[in-house]
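STRUCTURE:
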């Protein structure tokens, strides 16, 4: 019997480290195809969970919406949305107040879904895609609840965490796998099956 695998992508962490790496062309990614390439013959990818939030900038919203819509054509892709909260920051030097937005709820959602899937015996292997050490508690819980369960951590480009790598059964640095990114880019134009074309954002070419 194949080992069931579920992936949990910290979208905020994943996206910004692709940006740091200068890999904008890989934003337009078929996530299920990408992660499938890391599996062994006895492993089966049954779901990819992606955790993110809707940005306030209209252009970013539209690009993100196209990316989500394209991936949601695969029934094994599941989207979990948190939110951005407005935050005012006062500069100590000029005393001017700047507005920024902080993503909320993603860590909690990742933790909750990971734990729920293990408790309900939905998978044999969990793959966490993040370098955020705030996600150590769910791994510790899973280790205690079901010691036989395997946990892999995939670090986004340019990021890693010693604490996460020391807790998992296997860790991979995704920056070393550019060929898998390149082979998983979605088509420039995708038919959604309802007469509508999903197009790759021009800024992501």
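SEQUENCE:
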């Amino acid at each position: 019997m194949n080992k069931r695998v579920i992936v949990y992508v910290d979208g905020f962490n994943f996206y910004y480290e692709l940006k740091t790496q200068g890999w904008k062309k890989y934003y337009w990614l078929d996530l299920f195809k990408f992660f499938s390439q890391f599996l062994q013959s006895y492993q089966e990818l049954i779901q990819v969970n992606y955790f993110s939030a809707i940005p306030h900038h209209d252009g970013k919203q539209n690009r993100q919406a196209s990316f989500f819509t394209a991936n949601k054509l695969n029934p094994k892709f599941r989207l979990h949305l948190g939110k951005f909260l407005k935050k005012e920051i006062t500069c100590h030097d000029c005393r001017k107040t700047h507005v920024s937005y902080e993503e909320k709820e993603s860590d909690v959602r990742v933790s909750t879904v990971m734990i729920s899937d293990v408790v309900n015996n939905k998978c044999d292997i969990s793959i966490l895609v993040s370098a955020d050490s705030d996600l150590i508690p769910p791994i510790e819980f899973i280790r205690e609840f079901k010691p036989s369960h395997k946990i892999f951590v995939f670090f986004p480009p340019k990021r890693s965490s010693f604490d996460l790598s020391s807790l998992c059964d296997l860790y991979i640095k995704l920056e070393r796998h550019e060929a898998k990114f390149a082979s998983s880019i979605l088509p420039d134009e995708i038919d959604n099956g309802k007469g509508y074309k999903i197009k790759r954002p021009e800024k992501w070419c």
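REMARK: The radius of gyration is 18 Å.
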